[in-house]
Amino acid sequence: MSDRDFAQTLAKGLEVLACFESGALCLTLPEITRRSGLDRAVVRRLCLTLVRCGYLEEGEGGLRLAPRVLTLAGGFLGGLQVGRVVQPVLRHAAEELDMEVALATRDRLHAVYVDRAAPASARVTLGFGIGSALPLLHTAVGRMLLARSGPEVLEQALAARPATRYTEATELDPARLRAAVEAAREQGFAFARDEFELGAAGVAVPLGGLGQVPFVLATTASVNAFDEPGRLERVLDVLRRSALAIGRIGAPR
Amino acid sequence: MSDRDFAQTLAKGLEVLACFESGALCLTLPEITRRSGLDRAVVRRLCLTLVRCGYLEEGEGGLRLAPRVLTLAGGFLGGLQVGRVVQPVLRHAAEELDMEVALATRDRLHAVYVDRAAPASARVTLGFGIGSALPLLHTAVGRMLLARSGPEVLEQALAARPATRYTEATELDPARLRAAVEAAREQGFAFARDEFELGAAGVAVPLGGLGQVPFVLATTASVNAFDEPGRLERVLDVLRRSALAIGRIGAPR
DNA sequence: TGCGAATGGTGCGATAATCGCACATAGTGG
DNA sequence: CCACTATGTGCGATTATCGCACCATTCGCA
């Protein structure tokens, strides 16, 4: 039935894999069954296949992702020249600003860190690294990504906006969220503070994208880092110069 | 035919995905067909499925991995508490040694970087980051991993050893490679220089693993960084203390 | 101890999804 | 102009997959 050019079994297997994206260390078979909504026997067979192919491994009390998925991510990062081109630029910008700097893109309805650098002085980390997923609506990265994505993405994001606030400052009003994204598009940068993590603020600027998918360059710091007048301008300046230095992602080669 | 508990379509789809691991930015359909050895029509349908599921995207002149694979990797890293626990330790060790420090594990016949930190002074990077795959036989990380893996892994690695040397110093003699791995096991650390990258040397120490899969902590620097007497001992000391600080990967939670 | 619920493993027949050949088109280069 | 490669797709035969059903085991709890 349905589409002749769609391999259902493969799609279901990927669905099973996707159950592990939410940072759960170990999932049991029944848990995967619940999350995926697939038949119990099917889930079992798919999991056995995934284990045999090296994408999952059996741990104590369930299944967990295997290092194999890192190799896959390595293919993505390697193709983008992240190691050689992006990383040095991010490091330099991080030192210059004394702030965390990250390159991010969009995966469906999340912002995803592609690479990240922190200054040597940073003694505390928010715990976000490569592959971390952040909300689109309530972070600077996310809003800049939305500003550069099609309108349908914004609609989907608004439709899927969280029922509960991340913090007391989380904006939930659709009209205001639309305005924030629109402002990001017109200003050429996005700013957000306290809405996702209390005490944290972020700035994001666009970066020449690869095909349809936009990339953004962003920095995160504690809120008071931006209090000083002129600080925002300096951050924007460094970020934009870094964006130019990186250029179009994946364009070379 | 064959196994009742093995979803062939899923396995083939993963095979297609794996074609992109080797850092190729864009692959055309015929290229994937060649690499995977599957039927042309099958490859096409699987690719269409992978695109629809968001794991591949169409770029100029072929298909390429989508950011989605990063989200998957993020699930793996998040489950291991890499962001919060590992990263700070690596950063601290990197600064203390003024060398690049990495946490690595094994994926089949490759060593894979799980996380990495470089000191602020580092102005040049080898281009390896999270997800980068290194050979098992000719790097310090790899040999330490082999020393902690089952004997069958060593045999497979030896059987699959490269036909051409990476550098003029690459050891290709099976007996000597076995001895190097055995030495790593007995000494409790591995050392390699020039064998993979000319001018680069590495040291690796074991780390409490997660289940069967071993982890190692390693540092990389230019060869002359280890010339100074007593330097190796100091590196080992810092690495081992860092390994203790990280503890058993994924054990908490 | 005994009961019920949850988990894990598996056989099997019907169904439908997959396979892979085959045909068709377009672009490229000699 | 032809050979070659890339790409798209229809279709019949095959067979892999589905998902129900049944059974074994473990665990919690009364």
Automatic annotation (TrEMBL), chains A, B:
<feature type="domain" description="IclR-ED">
    <location>
        <begin position="68"/>
        <end position="252"/>
    </location>
</feature>
<dbReference type="Pfam" id="PF01614">
    <property type="entry name" value="IclR_C"/>
</dbReference>
<dbReference type="Pfam" id="PF09339">
    <property type="entry name" value="HTH_IclR"/>
</dbReference>
<dbReference type="GO" id="GO:0003677">
    <property type="term" value="F:DNA binding"/>
</dbReference>
<dbReference type="InterPro" id="IPR036388">
    <property type="entry name" value="WH-like_DNA-bd_sf"/>
</dbReference>
<dbReference type="InterPro" id="IPR050707">
    <property type="entry name" value="HTH_MetabolicPath_Reg"/>
</dbReference>
<dbReference type="InterPro" id="IPR014757">
    <property type="entry name" value="Tscrpt_reg_IclR_C"/>
</dbReference>
<keyword id="KW-0804">Transcription</keyword>
<keyword id="KW-0238">DNA-binding</keyword>
<dbReference type="InterPro" id="IPR029016">
    <property type="entry name" value="GAF-like_dom_sf"/>
</dbReference>
<dbReference type="InterPro" id="IPR036390">
    <property type="entry name" value="WH_DNA-bd_sf"/>
</dbReference>
<keyword id="KW-0805">Transcription regulation</keyword>
<dbReference type="InterPro" id="IPR005471">
    <property type="entry name" value="Tscrpt_reg_IclR_N"/>
</dbReference>
<protein>
    <submittedName>
        <fullName>IclR family transcriptional regulator</fullName>
    </submittedName>
</protein>
<feature type="domain" description="HTH iclR-type">
    <location>
        <begin position="7"/>
        <end position="67"/>
    </location>
</feature>
<dbReference type="GO" id="GO:0045892">
    <property type="term" value="P:negative regulation of DNA-templated transcription"/>
</dbReference>
<dbReference type="GO" id="GO:0003700">
    <property type="term" value="F:DNA-binding transcription factor activity"/>
</dbReference>
